Structure prediction request, 563 residues.
Amino acid sequence: MHTKKYIGGCKAVMLLVVLCIMGISNTEAQTVWENPETPVMGYLQRMAQKGKIELQDLIQPITRKQIETALLALEKSNLNISNQNIIPLTTTEKKELAFYLQEYKSVGGTDSAVLKAVQKDANQRLRGLYLHQKDFSLNVDPMGSLMRVTSQGNSFTQMSHGLSFWGQAKQFAFQFYYKDYTENGNGMEAFRIASPEKSIIRLYNPTATSQNFSEVRGSVSYSWNKGSISLGKDHLNWGYGENGKIVLDNKVSSYPLIRLDYHPTKWMQFNYTHAWLNSNIIDSNALYTAGVGAGSGELRVQYIPKYMATHSLVFKPMKGLHIAIGESVVYSDKTDIGFFIPVNFFKVYDNNRSNYNINAGSNGQFFIQASSRNQIKNTHLYGSMFIDEIRVATIFDKSKSRNQLGYTLGGSVTDVLLPYLTLGTEYTRVNPFVYTNLVAAQNYTQYDRVMGDWMGNNFDRMMLFAKYNPIPKLNLYARFQSIRKGGQGTIAAQYLAEPQPPFLFDLQSKRKDWFVQFKYEWINNFYLLGSFESISYSYKNENVHPAVQSGQTIQLGISYGIR
Prediction:
Protein backbone atom coordinates (compact mmCIF):
# COMPACT_ATOMS: atom_id res chain seq x y z
CA MET A 1 0.00 0.00 0.00
CA HIS A 2 2.82 2.40 0.89
CA THR A 3 4.73 1.50 -2.26
CA LYS A 4 1.72 2.38 -4.42
CA LYS A 5 1.43 5.75 -2.68
CA TYR A 6 5.07 6.54 -3.41
CA ILE A 7 4.76 5.54 -7.07
CA GLY A 8 1.54 7.48 -7.44
CA GLY A 9 3.08 10.53 -5.82
CA CYS A 10 6.09 10.47 -8.13
CA LYS A 11 3.83 10.21 -11.16
CA ALA A 12 1.75 13.11 -9.93
CA VAL A 13 4.80 15.33 -9.46
CA MET A 14 6.18 14.54 -12.89
CA LEU A 15 2.79 15.08 -14.51
CA LEU A 16 2.49 18.45 -12.80
CA VAL A 17 5.96 19.47 -14.01
CA VAL A 18 5.14 18.46 -17.59
CA LEU A 19 1.80 20.26 -17.56
CA CYS A 20 3.42 23.43 -16.27
CA ILE A 21 6.09 23.30 -18.92
CA MET A 22 3.64 22.68 -21.74
CA GLY A 23 1.87 25.89 -20.90
CA ILE A 24 4.98 28.05 -21.17
CA SER A 25 5.72 29.99 -24.37
CA ASN A 26 7.66 28.19 -27.08
CA THR A 27 11.07 28.93 -28.49
CA GLU A 28 13.37 27.43 -31.07
CA ALA A 29 16.00 26.39 -28.52
CA GLN A 30 16.47 22.62 -28.50
CA THR A 31 18.16 20.58 -25.82
CA VAL A 32 20.66 18.21 -27.39
CA TRP A 33 23.44 17.57 -24.90
CA GLU A 34 27.01 17.60 -26.18
CA ASN A 35 29.85 15.40 -24.92
CA PRO A 36 32.03 17.53 -22.59
CA GLU A 37 35.16 15.97 -24.10
CA THR A 38 34.60 17.40 -27.57
CA PRO A 39 37.42 19.84 -28.52
CA VAL A 40 34.99 22.73 -29.13
CA MET A 41 34.64 23.00 -25.34
CA GLY A 42 38.35 23.75 -24.97
CA TYR A 43 38.08 26.39 -27.68
CA LEU A 44 35.10 28.09 -26.05
CA GLN A 45 36.66 27.95 -22.59
CA ARG A 46 39.75 29.68 -23.93
CA MET A 47 37.63 32.36 -25.64
CA ALA A 48 35.71 32.89 -22.38
CA GLN A 49 39.01 33.13 -20.53
CA LYS A 50 40.00 35.96 -22.90
CA GLY A 51 36.69 37.71 -22.20
CA LYS A 52 35.38 37.34 -25.76
CA ILE A 53 32.23 35.41 -24.77
CA GLU A 54 30.18 34.44 -21.74
CA LEU A 55 30.18 30.67 -21.11
CA GLN A 56 28.10 28.91 -18.47
CA ASP A 57 29.82 25.52 -18.35
CA LEU A 58 29.95 24.85 -14.62
CA ILE A 59 27.32 22.14 -15.10
CA GLN A 60 28.02 19.87 -18.04
CA PRO A 61 27.07 18.62 -20.51
CA ILE A 62 25.82 21.82 -22.09
CA THR A 63 23.62 21.85 -25.18
CA ARG A 64 24.56 22.13 -28.83
CA LYS A 65 22.38 25.26 -28.90
CA GLN A 66 24.51 26.86 -26.17
CA ILE A 67 27.63 26.02 -28.17
CA GLU A 68 26.09 27.48 -31.34
CA THR A 69 25.08 30.68 -29.50
CA ALA A 70 28.64 31.14 -28.20
CA LEU A 71 30.16 30.53 -31.64
CA LEU A 72 27.76 32.95 -33.33
CA ALA A 73 28.58 35.58 -30.68
CA LEU A 74 32.25 35.19 -31.58
CA GLU A 75 31.42 35.49 -35.26
CA LYS A 76 29.33 38.63 -34.70
CA SER A 77 31.94 40.35 -32.51
CA ASN A 78 34.68 39.60 -35.02
CA LEU A 79 32.65 41.28 -37.77
CA ASN A 80 32.10 44.37 -35.62
CA ILE A 81 35.53 45.82 -36.40
CA SER A 82 34.26 49.36 -35.76
CA ASN A 83 34.16 48.67 -32.00
CA GLN A 84 37.64 49.54 -30.75
CA ASN A 85 37.02 47.68 -27.47
CA ILE A 86 36.84 44.35 -29.29
CA ILE A 87 40.15 42.63 -30.01
CA PRO A 88 39.68 40.74 -33.30
CA LEU A 89 40.24 37.00 -33.51
CA THR A 90 43.60 35.78 -34.67
CA THR A 91 43.98 33.86 -37.92
CA THR A 92 44.07 30.52 -36.09
CA GLU A 93 41.03 31.42 -33.97
CA LYS A 94 39.09 32.42 -37.12
CA LYS A 95 39.90 29.12 -38.80
CA GLU A 96 38.83 27.17 -35.72
CA LEU A 97 35.62 29.19 -35.49
CA ALA A 98 34.74 28.45 -39.13
CA PHE A 99 35.52 24.77 -38.56
CA TYR A 100 33.28 24.46 -35.48
CA LEU A 101 30.44 26.39 -37.13
CA GLN A 102 30.33 23.64 -39.75
CA GLU A 103 29.32 21.27 -36.97
CA TYR A 104 27.13 23.41 -34.74
CA LYS A 105 25.47 26.11 -36.84
CA SER A 106 21.78 25.35 -37.31
CA VAL A 107 20.63 24.35 -40.78
CA GLY A 108 17.26 25.80 -41.67
CA GLY A 109 14.63 23.60 -43.25
CA THR A 110 11.84 24.08 -45.76
CA ASP A 111 8.30 22.72 -45.96
CA SER A 112 9.58 19.84 -48.08
CA ALA A 113 11.98 17.38 -46.50
CA VAL A 114 15.61 17.19 -47.63
CA LEU A 115 16.99 13.68 -47.09
CA LYS A 116 20.57 12.85 -48.08
CA ALA A 117 23.10 10.15 -47.22
CA VAL A 118 26.91 10.45 -47.11
CA GLN A 119 26.79 14.02 -48.32
CA LYS A 120 27.66 17.47 -47.04
CA ASP A 121 24.89 19.53 -45.50
CA ALA A 122 24.36 23.27 -45.99
CA ASN A 123 27.30 23.97 -43.62
CA GLN A 124 29.60 21.71 -45.69
CA ARG A 125 29.70 19.19 -42.87
CA LEU A 126 29.92 15.62 -44.22
CA ARG A 127 27.27 13.47 -42.50
CA GLY A 128 26.30 9.83 -42.74
CA LEU A 129 22.65 10.78 -43.16
CA TYR A 130 20.63 13.91 -42.57
CA LEU A 131 17.03 15.00 -42.91
CA HIS A 132 16.15 18.68 -42.66
CA GLN A 133 12.62 20.00 -42.75
CA LYS A 134 10.80 22.91 -41.17
CA ASP A 135 10.26 22.07 -37.47
CA PHE A 136 12.09 18.74 -37.80
CA SER A 137 15.67 17.56 -38.27
CA LEU A 138 17.60 14.30 -38.00
CA ASN A 139 21.36 13.81 -38.15
CA VAL A 140 22.98 10.36 -38.16
CA ASP A 141 26.67 9.49 -38.01
CA PRO A 142 28.52 6.19 -37.71
CA MET A 143 31.10 5.84 -34.93
CA GLY A 144 34.22 3.79 -34.61
CA SER A 145 37.74 3.74 -33.26
CA LEU A 146 40.94 1.73 -33.28
CA MET A 147 43.42 2.17 -30.42
CA ARG A 148 46.61 0.44 -29.38
CA VAL A 149 47.46 0.72 -25.69
CA THR A 150 50.78 -0.31 -24.15
CA SER A 151 50.57 0.02 -20.39
CA GLN A 152 52.89 -1.03 -17.56
CA GLY A 153 54.57 -3.73 -19.63
CA ASN A 154 51.28 -5.04 -21.06
CA SER A 155 49.49 -4.17 -24.29
CA PHE A 156 46.03 -4.54 -25.80
CA THR A 157 44.04 -3.41 -28.81
CA GLN A 158 40.71 -1.63 -28.45
CA MET A 159 38.23 -1.52 -31.33
CA SER A 160 34.80 0.02 -31.32
CA HIS A 161 31.84 0.62 -33.60
CA GLY A 162 28.56 2.33 -33.07
CA LEU A 163 26.03 4.91 -34.09
CA SER A 164 24.94 8.35 -32.96
CA PHE A 165 21.96 10.40 -33.99
CA TRP A 166 20.25 13.53 -32.80
CA GLY A 167 17.53 15.86 -33.93
CA GLN A 168 14.55 17.95 -32.95
CA ALA A 169 10.83 18.33 -33.57
CA LYS A 170 9.74 21.85 -32.62
CA GLN A 171 10.38 22.13 -28.85
CA PHE A 172 11.25 18.45 -28.46
CA ALA A 173 14.76 17.12 -29.00
CA PHE A 174 16.23 13.62 -28.98
CA GLN A 175 19.64 12.02 -29.11
CA PHE A 176 21.20 8.57 -28.97
CA TYR A 177 24.79 7.45 -28.64
CA TYR A 178 25.89 3.81 -28.75
CA LYS A 179 29.36 2.29 -28.94
CA ASP A 180 30.34 -1.37 -28.65
CA TYR A 181 33.93 -1.99 -27.54
CA THR A 182 36.13 -5.08 -27.91
CA GLU A 183 39.52 -5.30 -26.20
CA ASN A 184 42.12 -8.02 -26.75
CA GLY A 185 45.42 -8.34 -24.90
CA ASN A 186 46.76 -7.97 -21.36
CA GLY A 187 46.62 -5.26 -18.69
CA MET A 188 43.11 -3.99 -19.45
CA GLU A 189 42.04 -3.65 -15.82
CA ALA A 190 45.29 -2.13 -14.54
CA PHE A 191 44.91 0.52 -17.24
CA ARG A 192 41.76 1.79 -15.49
CA ILE A 193 42.71 1.39 -11.83
CA ALA A 194 43.79 4.60 -10.10
CA SER A 195 43.37 6.66 -13.27
CA PRO A 196 40.77 9.00 -14.74
CA GLU A 197 40.09 6.51 -17.54
CA LYS A 198 36.38 5.73 -17.73
CA SER A 199 35.11 2.82 -15.70
CA ILE A 200 33.26 0.05 -17.48
CA ILE A 201 30.54 -2.35 -16.41
CA ARG A 202 31.40 -5.98 -17.07
CA LEU A 203 31.95 -9.33 -15.46
CA TYR A 204 35.44 -9.03 -14.01
CA ASN A 205 37.98 -11.74 -14.72
CA PRO A 206 41.51 -10.56 -13.83
CA THR A 207 43.10 -13.16 -16.13
CA ALA A 208 40.91 -12.45 -19.16
CA THR A 209 42.70 -11.51 -22.38
CA SER A 210 39.52 -10.45 -24.18
CA GLN A 211 36.49 -8.46 -23.10
CA ASN A 212 33.48 -6.73 -24.60
CA PHE A 213 31.44 -3.85 -23.21
CA SER A 214 29.14 -1.12 -24.45
CA GLU A 215 28.43 2.52 -23.73
CA VAL A 216 24.96 3.97 -24.21
CA ARG A 217 23.77 7.53 -23.69
CA GLY A 218 20.61 9.18 -24.84
CA SER A 219 17.78 11.51 -23.92
CA VAL A 220 14.46 13.03 -24.87
CA SER A 221 14.03 16.69 -23.94
CA TYR A 222 11.50 19.47 -24.01
CA SER A 223 12.60 23.14 -24.10
CA TRP A 224 10.92 26.45 -23.49
CA ASN A 225 12.23 30.01 -23.41
CA LYS A 226 13.47 29.76 -19.80
CA GLY A 227 14.76 26.21 -19.60
CA SER A 228 14.37 22.54 -20.41
CA ILE A 229 13.56 19.15 -18.92
CA SER A 230 15.25 15.92 -20.04
CA LEU A 231 14.74 12.23 -19.45
CA GLY A 232 17.72 10.13 -20.40
CA LYS A 233 20.89 8.23 -19.54
CA ASP A 234 24.05 10.31 -19.22
CA HIS A 235 26.66 11.76 -16.86
CA LEU A 236 26.49 15.01 -14.96
CA ASN A 237 29.68 17.00 -14.45
CA TRP A 238 29.69 19.71 -11.78
CA GLY A 239 32.46 22.22 -11.19
CA TYR A 240 35.95 22.67 -12.57
CA GLY A 241 38.96 20.42 -12.32
CA GLU A 242 41.76 19.64 -14.72
CA ASN A 243 42.15 15.96 -13.93
CA GLY A 244 39.12 15.15 -11.83
CA LYS A 245 36.16 16.99 -10.32
CA ILE A 246 35.44 16.60 -6.61
CA VAL A 247 31.63 17.01 -6.88
CA LEU A 248 30.52 15.06 -9.96
CA ASP A 249 32.84 13.60 -12.58
CA ASN A 250 32.27 11.45 -15.68
CA LYS A 251 34.70 8.62 -14.85
CA VAL A 252 31.77 6.51 -13.67
CA SER A 253 29.42 4.79 -16.08
CA SER A 254 26.40 6.80 -17.21
CA TYR A 255 23.13 6.50 -15.29
CA PRO A 256 19.40 7.12 -15.93
CA LEU A 257 18.32 10.57 -14.85
CA ILE A 258 15.75 13.33 -14.98
CA ARG A 259 17.33 16.74 -15.49
CA LEU A 260 15.65 20.13 -15.13
CA ASP A 261 17.42 23.36 -16.10
CA TYR A 262 15.78 26.72 -15.45
CA HIS A 263 17.26 30.19 -16.00
CA PRO A 264 14.67 32.83 -15.02
CA THR A 265 17.17 35.68 -15.49
CA LYS A 266 20.50 36.24 -17.23
CA TRP A 267 22.24 36.29 -13.85
CA MET A 268 20.79 33.10 -12.30
CA GLN A 269 20.44 29.45 -13.29
CA PHE A 270 18.81 26.55 -11.43
CA ASN A 271 19.56 22.87 -12.02
CA TYR A 272 17.83 19.81 -10.57
CA THR A 273 18.65 16.17 -11.27
CA HIS A 274 17.29 12.88 -9.98
CA ALA A 275 19.36 9.84 -10.91
CA TRP A 276 19.00 6.07 -10.58
CA LEU A 277 22.30 4.50 -9.50
CA ASN A 278 23.58 0.96 -9.03
CA SER A 279 24.55 -0.02 -5.48
CA ASN A 280 26.24 -3.27 -6.57
CA ILE A 281 25.04 -4.71 -3.24
CA ILE A 282 22.82 -7.78 -3.26
CA ASP A 283 19.58 -7.43 -1.31
CA SER A 284 19.57 -10.61 0.79
CA ASN A 285 15.90 -10.10 1.73
CA ALA A 286 14.91 -10.20 -1.94
CA LEU A 287 16.61 -13.49 -2.85
CA TYR A 288 14.45 -16.33 -4.03
CA THR A 289 14.85 -19.63 -5.84
CA ALA A 290 14.47 -19.48 -9.61
CA GLY A 291 15.37 -21.34 -12.76
CA VAL A 292 14.29 -24.46 -14.56
CA GLY A 293 16.14 -27.45 -15.91
CA ALA A 294 19.86 -27.35 -15.35
CA GLY A 295 19.50 -24.05 -13.50
CA SER A 296 16.80 -25.21 -11.16
CA GLY A 297 17.35 -24.23 -7.56
CA GLU A 298 19.61 -21.27 -8.28
CA LEU A 299 18.97 -17.98 -6.53
CA ARG A 300 17.39 -14.98 -8.20
CA VAL A 301 19.61 -12.01 -7.31
CA GLN A 302 18.37 -8.45 -6.81
CA TYR A 303 20.40 -5.40 -5.87
CA ILE A 304 19.52 -2.75 -3.32
CA PRO A 305 17.94 0.22 -5.12
CA LYS A 306 20.02 3.39 -5.01
CA TYR A 307 19.25 6.97 -6.04
CA MET A 308 20.72 10.46 -6.08
CA ALA A 309 19.00 13.85 -6.08
CA THR A 310 20.92 17.09 -6.58
CA HIS A 311 20.08 20.73 -7.15
CA SER A 312 22.12 23.90 -7.40
CA LEU A 313 21.92 27.62 -8.07
CA VAL A 314 24.44 29.49 -10.22
CA PHE A 315 24.72 33.28 -9.90
CA LYS A 316 26.49 35.72 -12.21
CA PRO A 317 26.97 39.01 -10.31
CA MET A 318 29.15 40.42 -13.12
CA LYS A 319 30.62 39.44 -16.47
CA GLY A 320 32.94 36.45 -16.18
CA LEU A 321 32.19 35.78 -12.49
CA HIS A 322 30.04 32.77 -11.50
CA ILE A 323 29.23 31.62 -7.98
CA ALA A 324 27.33 28.39 -7.34
CA ILE A 325 25.90 26.59 -4.33
CA GLY A 326 24.39 23.13 -4.38
CA GLU A 327 23.13 20.19 -2.39
CA SER A 328 22.86 16.48 -3.09
CA VAL A 329 21.64 13.38 -1.35
CA VAL A 330 22.29 9.70 -2.02
CA TYR A 331 19.53 7.49 -0.68
CA SER A 332 18.53 3.84 -1.01
CA ASP A 333 15.90 1.14 -0.59
CA LYS A 334 12.97 2.90 -2.35
CA THR A 335 12.14 6.09 -4.19
CA ASP A 336 11.03 8.99 -2.03
CA ILE A 337 8.59 11.64 -3.28
CA GLY A 338 10.36 14.32 -1.24
CA PHE A 339 13.50 14.09 -3.37
CA PHE A 340 11.47 14.62 -6.54
CA ILE A 341 10.58 18.13 -5.42
CA PRO A 342 13.24 20.35 -7.05
CA VAL A 343 13.05 23.17 -4.48
CA ASN A 344 12.95 20.93 -1.40
CA PHE A 345 15.74 21.38 1.18
CA PHE A 346 17.01 17.80 1.05
CA LYS A 347 19.00 17.81 4.30
CA VAL A 348 16.15 19.18 6.41
CA TYR A 349 13.66 16.88 4.73
CA ASP A 350 15.87 13.84 5.32
CA ASN A 351 16.35 14.71 8.99
CA ASN A 352 12.57 14.92 9.45
CA ARG A 353 11.81 11.69 7.56
CA SER A 354 14.45 9.79 9.56
CA ASN A 355 13.58 11.31 12.95
CA TYR A 356 17.26 12.35 13.18
CA ASN A 357 18.22 8.66 13.38
CA ILE A 358 21.53 8.17 11.57
CA ASN A 359 20.64 4.56 10.79
CA ALA A 360 17.43 5.67 9.03
CA GLY A 361 18.81 8.69 7.21
CA SER A 362 20.49 9.25 3.87
CA ASN A 363 23.90 10.52 2.78
CA GLY A 364 23.75 14.29 2.15
CA GLN A 365 26.35 16.70 0.76
CA PHE A 366 26.79 20.43 0.10
CA PHE A 367 29.08 22.03 -2.47
CA ILE A 368 30.27 25.48 -3.50
CA GLN A 369 31.99 26.74 -6.65
CA ALA A 370 33.46 30.10 -7.66
CA SER A 371 34.86 30.90 -11.09
CA SER A 372 36.41 34.10 -12.44
CA ARG A 373 37.24 34.51 -16.13
CA ASN A 374 39.12 37.55 -17.40
CA GLN A 375 38.64 39.55 -14.20
CA ILE A 376 42.41 39.47 -14.46
CA LYS A 377 43.28 39.63 -18.17
CA ASN A 378 43.33 36.21 -19.89
CA THR A 379 43.07 34.41 -16.55
CA HIS A 380 40.70 31.76 -15.19
CA LEU A 381 40.63 31.33 -11.40
CA TYR A 382 38.38 28.74 -9.77
CA GLY A 383 37.71 26.98 -6.53
CA SER A 384 35.40 24.13 -5.45
CA MET A 385 34.45 22.80 -2.03
CA PHE A 386 32.61 19.54 -1.33
CA ILE A 387 31.23 19.16 2.20
CA ASP A 388 30.29 15.60 3.14
CA GLU A 389 30.12 16.21 6.89
CA ILE A 390 31.22 19.07 9.10
CA ARG A 391 30.78 20.08 12.76
CA VAL A 392 30.64 23.85 12.67
CA ALA A 393 30.75 24.19 16.47
CA THR A 394 34.04 22.26 16.73
CA ILE A 395 35.58 23.15 13.37
CA PHE A 396 38.78 24.43 15.00
CA ASP A 397 38.87 21.86 17.81
CA LYS A 398 41.25 19.15 16.60
CA SER A 399 40.08 16.72 19.27
CA LYS A 400 36.40 16.81 18.23
CA SER A 401 36.27 18.19 14.67
CA ARG A 402 34.71 16.15 11.87
CA ASN A 403 35.75 18.06 8.77
CA GLN A 404 35.00 15.52 6.07
CA LEU A 405 35.35 17.78 3.09
CA GLY A 406 37.37 18.29 -0.07
CA TYR A 407 38.41 21.27 -2.11
CA THR A 408 40.09 22.25 -5.37
CA LEU A 409 41.90 25.51 -6.08
CA GLY A 410 43.22 26.27 -9.55
CA GLY A 411 44.01 28.85 -12.13
CA SER A 412 45.45 29.35 -15.60
CA VAL A 413 46.63 32.13 -17.91
CA THR A 414 46.28 31.96 -21.70
CA ASP A 415 48.34 33.60 -24.42
CA VAL A 416 51.30 33.60 -22.04
CA LEU A 417 54.85 33.43 -23.44
CA LEU A 418 53.42 32.24 -26.79
CA PRO A 419 50.13 32.87 -28.61
CA TYR A 420 47.60 30.04 -27.94
CA LEU A 421 49.63 28.75 -24.97
CA THR A 422 47.79 28.25 -21.65
CA LEU A 423 49.68 27.55 -18.42
CA GLY A 424 48.01 26.58 -15.18
CA THR A 425 48.26 24.99 -11.76
CA GLU A 426 45.78 23.19 -9.50
CA TYR A 427 45.69 21.72 -6.00
CA THR A 428 43.10 19.22 -4.75
CA ARG A 429 42.69 17.84 -1.26
CA VAL A 430 40.01 15.40 -0.08
CA ASN A 431 39.93 14.56 3.62
CA PRO A 432 39.49 11.05 5.06
CA PHE A 433 36.07 9.37 4.80
CA VAL A 434 34.62 11.77 2.20
CA TYR A 435 32.27 9.92 -0.22
CA THR A 436 31.65 7.06 2.27
CA ASN A 437 28.67 6.39 4.50
CA LEU A 438 27.52 4.21 7.40
CA VAL A 439 25.12 2.52 4.97
CA ALA A 440 27.20 0.98 2.17
CA ALA A 441 24.33 1.32 -0.32
CA GLN A 442 24.51 5.10 0.23
CA ASN A 443 28.18 5.59 -0.55
CA TYR A 444 28.81 8.38 -3.07
CA THR A 445 29.43 5.82 -5.80
CA GLN A 446 28.07 4.32 -9.02
CA TYR A 447 28.97 0.65 -9.49
CA ASP A 448 31.50 1.02 -6.64
CA ARG A 449 33.27 3.90 -8.43
CA VAL A 450 33.38 7.28 -6.71
CA MET A 451 31.22 9.84 -8.51
CA GLY A 452 33.55 12.62 -7.38
CA ASP A 453 37.32 12.64 -7.82
CA TRP A 454 38.72 9.34 -9.15
CA MET A 455 41.34 9.23 -6.36
CA GLY A 456 38.62 8.79 -3.73
CA ASN A 457 39.41 10.25 -0.30
CA ASN A 458 42.36 10.86 2.00
CA PHE A 459 44.61 12.19 -0.76
CA ASP A 460 46.00 15.40 -2.18
CA ARG A 461 47.23 16.26 -5.68
CA MET A 462 49.42 19.09 -6.92
CA MET A 463 49.38 19.69 -10.65
CA LEU A 464 51.02 21.83 -13.32
CA PHE A 465 49.53 21.80 -16.81
CA ALA A 466 49.90 23.36 -20.26
CA LYS A 467 47.63 23.57 -23.30
CA TYR A 468 48.82 24.63 -26.74
CA ASN A 469 47.11 25.06 -30.10
CA PRO A 470 49.93 25.81 -32.56
CA ILE A 471 47.75 25.25 -35.63
CA PRO A 472 43.98 25.02 -36.13
CA LYS A 473 42.34 21.79 -34.92
CA LEU A 474 45.51 20.53 -33.18
CA ASN A 475 45.32 20.33 -29.37
CA LEU A 476 48.44 19.60 -27.35
CA TYR A 477 48.27 18.96 -23.64
CA ALA A 478 50.86 18.26 -20.94
CA ARG A 479 50.72 17.92 -17.18
CA PHE A 480 52.80 16.93 -14.20
CA GLN A 481 51.13 15.80 -10.99
CA SER A 482 52.25 14.67 -7.58
CA ILE A 483 49.75 12.63 -5.54
CA ARG A 484 49.81 11.40 -1.94
CA LYS A 485 47.27 8.74 -0.96
CA GLY A 486 46.41 7.65 2.57
CA GLY A 487 44.47 4.67 3.95
CA GLN A 488 40.74 4.03 3.80
CA GLY A 489 40.14 3.56 7.50
CA THR A 490 37.08 1.89 9.03
CA ILE A 491 33.44 2.77 9.69
CA ALA A 492 34.20 2.82 13.41
CA ALA A 493 37.01 5.33 12.89
CA GLN A 494 34.78 7.47 10.68
CA TYR A 495 31.86 7.74 13.10
CA LEU A 496 33.23 7.09 16.59
CA ALA A 497 36.89 8.08 16.76
CA GLU A 498 37.71 11.32 18.60
CA PRO A 499 39.88 12.84 17.44
CA GLN A 500 39.33 11.81 13.82
CA PRO A 501 42.27 10.13 12.09
CA PRO A 502 44.46 12.91 10.64
CA PHE A 503 44.78 13.77 6.97
CA LEU A 504 46.88 11.19 5.07
CA PHE A 505 46.79 8.76 8.01
CA ASP A 506 48.26 5.37 7.15
CA LEU A 507 50.03 6.87 4.12
CA GLN A 508 49.87 4.22 1.39
CA SER A 509 51.65 5.62 -1.63
CA LYS A 510 53.24 8.61 -3.31
CA ARG A 511 52.85 9.03 -7.05
CA LYS A 512 54.45 11.28 -9.61
CA ASP A 513 53.57 11.25 -13.27
CA TRP A 514 54.15 13.06 -16.53
CA PHE A 515 51.47 13.05 -19.22
CA VAL A 516 51.49 14.44 -22.79
CA GLN A 517 48.68 14.13 -25.33
CA PHE A 518 47.87 15.23 -28.85
CA LYS A 519 44.48 15.30 -30.56
CA TYR A 520 44.02 16.44 -34.15
CA GLU A 521 40.53 16.77 -35.61
CA TRP A 522 41.38 16.27 -39.29
CA ILE A 523 37.80 16.65 -40.47
CA ASN A 524 34.67 17.17 -38.42
CA ASN A 525 34.41 14.34 -35.89
CA PHE A 526 37.46 12.40 -37.19
CA TYR A 527 40.42 12.36 -34.80
CA LEU A 528 44.04 11.32 -34.79
CA LEU A 529 45.13 10.93 -31.17
CA GLY A 530 47.87 9.68 -28.96
CA SER A 531 49.35 10.05 -25.49
CA PHE A 532 52.35 9.14 -23.36
CA GLU A 533 52.35 8.82 -19.57
CA SER A 534 55.19 7.97 -17.22
CA ILE A 535 54.21 7.02 -13.65
CA SER A 536 56.41 6.33 -10.65
CA TYR A 537 55.07 5.01 -7.33
CA SER A 538 56.64 4.66 -3.93
CA TYR A 539 54.70 2.44 -1.54
CA LYS A 540 54.68 2.25 2.23
CA ASN A 541 53.80 -1.40 1.75
CA GLU A 542 54.66 -3.05 -1.56
CA ASN A 543 51.52 -5.18 -1.33
CA VAL A 544 49.09 -2.27 -1.16
CA HIS A 545 48.29 -1.88 -4.86
CA PRO A 546 49.79 -4.88 -6.65
CA ALA A 547 47.78 -4.18 -9.83
CA VAL A 548 49.23 -0.69 -10.24
CA GLN A 549 52.95 -0.45 -10.88
CA SER A 550 55.41 2.18 -12.01
CA GLY A 551 55.88 2.34 -15.74
CA GLN A 552 54.83 3.96 -18.98
CA THR A 553 51.57 3.99 -20.92
CA ILE A 554 51.37 4.78 -24.64
CA GLN A 555 48.13 5.20 -26.59
CA LEU A 556 47.87 5.66 -30.35
CA GLY A 557 44.82 5.49 -32.55
CA ILE A 558 42.13 6.98 -34.72
CA SER A 559 38.51 7.68 -33.91
CA TYR A 560 35.41 8.82 -35.72
CA GLY A 561 33.36 10.34 -32.94
CA ILE A 562 34.58 11.10 -29.43
CA ARG A 563 36.30 8.01 -28.03
User: Anything to note?
Assistant: The first helix runs from residue 2 to 22. The longest strand covers residues 136-151. The chain has six helices and 26 strands. The two ends are 47 Å apart (CA to CA).
